[in-house]
Amino acid sequence: MTTSKKTPEKNTKTVQSEAKKPKRHSSLNPAIKLEKQLGQLIYNALQGKVVEEVLRKIKTSSSDAYWRSSMEGHSLKVQKDLLPDFYALCQEVKEKLQFEGKVDFYITGDSSVNAFSVAAEDENEPNIVNVNSALFDLMSQDELRFVIGHELGHLINKDTRLSRLVQFVFPPETAVPVSLMYKIRLHSQLAELVADRYGYMAVGKLGACVTAFFKLASGLDLAKMNVSIDALIADNSRRLEYFLKDKGFSRASHPVNPIRVQALNLFATSRTQKELNQGMDELISILLKVGDSELDEYMAAFIVAAGLIVANVDGELNREEYNRIVESLSELKIFPRQFIDEIAEKDVFKTFNDSVENILRINPGMREEMINYLIYVVMSDKVITEEEVSLLYEIGRNIGLSDMEVATAIAVAIQKSYIPSLEAIS
Length: 426
Fold this sequence. Notes:
20 helices; 62% helix; 4-stranded mixed sheet; mainly alpha
């Protein structure tokens, strides 16, 4: 457990004390719908069913043996006769979460404030949950319950299966396509929020979860530092506001703590699934952010609107042109196709004009990049029509380029990357 727009009605209520918080409805689902959808999308994109069957036949993985050897050789196994109190705590959490799979719990002598879980590849082998020894100097019993519940949550949610598939298809030296990389990161962040919910379910005390977060983040004993829970909550609310105002973004594999604390607060205090989902929509909108500047949003709108206008000048948006738009947009949007659909439903020409005006207001030096993008949209289907070239000149004038500058850009692009289609030369 490493510490690492369509906007719904805001739900920025702060974490409430245990005495004041409304009773959470017992039927709230710890799953997050988007996390499940993303997991399945990534699994399907990587041909998960086929790849897993191939790996089962060749039996190349030694993951179980590696982790078992590492834990048995370097860590202390939590057993009833050796560590009876912590053993009882782990079993209590396991039973509370109704996790029936076999689990071996370990403690590793490590000064880093961390815990992790590893799902067994072989269903006959136990899963592993490890807690670093540093946590025992910082955590109360309830905070440890949260940590153990969080790690069991990863096992319940089967997060390891997808991460193993990703690591096999894209080993460390292999670059992941940008659009897929963003989806993998978002899935990982949402999976952490799901695991946090299981951690809360294990202890049932929001305050213990919140203090556990801050101890994991700071490595400090809050009691010794005389830090109050009220001060922590006030600080979290201030930092969350920074992210909600479109200034902050979360790019690590784990969501930033202000998001995690508020997400858990919503799960602990929401009385209906609808109320929970509405509050989560706002927090997830932070995780959906890719760019970190005002210009990025205008560029995304330009890529779609200008791309659609140029691609449709011959009366047809073909697959190559559409894919070029998607590819260019993938660096700015996690779900590019959804964003294209949203722009297509609006006044595309107004979106184009507004985006051009705003881009040039912020950075007039973007003119060449804008026209070059459109040239490559035109060339993507390997057919360059007179209508398309005429439109490129018109757009060039619209953004402040001369016909000669546009013609030069077209000539350079043709020399650099134009290849006739097979139909034209066969």
